[in-house]
Amino acid sequence: MSRERAFNLAALALLVAVPAWAQLTGETFTITLATRAVIFALAATGLNIALGLGGLVSLGHAVFFGIGGYAMGILAFHAQSYTPLTDWPVTIPGTKLMPVIWLVAILVSALAALLIGLLALRTTGVYFIMITLAFGQMFYYFAISWPAYGGEDGMAIYVRNGFPGLNTLIPIQFYGLCLAWLLVVLWFNARLARSRFGLALNAARQAPQRVETVGLDPVRLKLVALVISGAVTGLAGALFADLNRFVSPTMFSWQLSGEIMVFVIIGGVGRLFGPVAGACLFVALEHLLGGITAYWHVWLGVLLLFIVLFGRGGLVGIFAGRGAVHD
């Protein structure tokens, strides 16, 4: 067994053991933190498909995260019917909306990624970074100026959407749904990296001119990767909105795009469990150090600086060395 595979199995064991321990000891808040970490890991895994395999440095991935969140919020908003006296939703507890929301979030986010990619992939390098950032800001200010769904104040969803056979209001059950999606996407990511498409995409990232000489279109390969990446990140946004029962324009912010990229860099670009390690460490630092000082990001910056300078493979690379990725 390679060291990277051992790291992956250890990370997976922690994803199961920590919430199970929290459930047994009644630490509900720990389960919520773990759910937040898993959702961020899912979003970062989506970015890792574009960044790790396709070499697409996107500072606008929060666009897809926000689109998924607003898809969830808008559908839930219209599914809730309110009584004029209590102003409380009376239909949504029996409405199993989650599968529908997931499908809509995936499709709408994929469509947005396709349209953005058709324009952004006409550029390369720093220009690609800036155009994705520009799209992120456009969606951010559009959400602020959309009063029908809360505008700058955001929109609350009073009751979490349902899933057939589960009570999603029970934290451990909702965590199980999010973890299941993360494992499915990680499995898909591993298969994608080893597929002919994944190998061609990796080649397009390293030597696009050579890929063209064998009859493949590197831009088309990267566009497909961006669409897949956007769909996964949109799914994460829908789950995040359901976790908080709230959506707001901050889901489109460039700061969130930067955080998602930080997850990937800290964990390891192109590493299968790199986004998982980065997201879990971020949430842990936010919880542990955030209670001590409001400037806890300083320590995150020190860690990021150390990894960029001395551990180019991220946490996974430090542990496993510079072996093959997606092991």
From TrEMBL:
Q: Which domain of life is it from?
A: Bacteria
What's the main place this protein lives?
membrane
CDD domains attached here? TM_PBP1_LivM_like
Alphabetical UniProt keywords: Cell membrane, Membrane, Signal, Transmembrane, Transmembrane helix
State the signal peptide span. Answer: 1-22
Q: Which GO terms describe its molecular function?
A: branched-chain amino acid transmembrane transporter activity
- InterPro entries for the chain: ABC_transp_permease (IPR001851), LivM-like (IPR043428)
Pfam families documented for this protein = BPD_transp_2
Q: Transmembrane region positions?
A: 38-57, 62-80, 100-121, 128-149, 169-188, 223-240, 260-285, 297-320
UniProt keyword annotation of Cell membrane present: yes
Q: How does it sit in the membrane?
A: Multi-pass membrane protein
Q: Does the keyword Transmembrane apply?
A: yes
**Cellular location(s):** Cell membrane
GO cellular component terms given for this protein: plasma membrane
Question: Which PANTHER family does the entry mention?
Answer: ABC TRANSPORTER ATP-BINDING PROTEIN (PTHR30482:SF17), HIGH-AFFINITY BRANCHED-CHAIN AMINO ACID TRANSPORT SYSTEM PERMEASE (PTHR30482)
Q: What is this protein called?
A: Branched-chain amino acid ABC transporter permease
Supply the source organism for this entry.
Pseudooceanicola pacificus
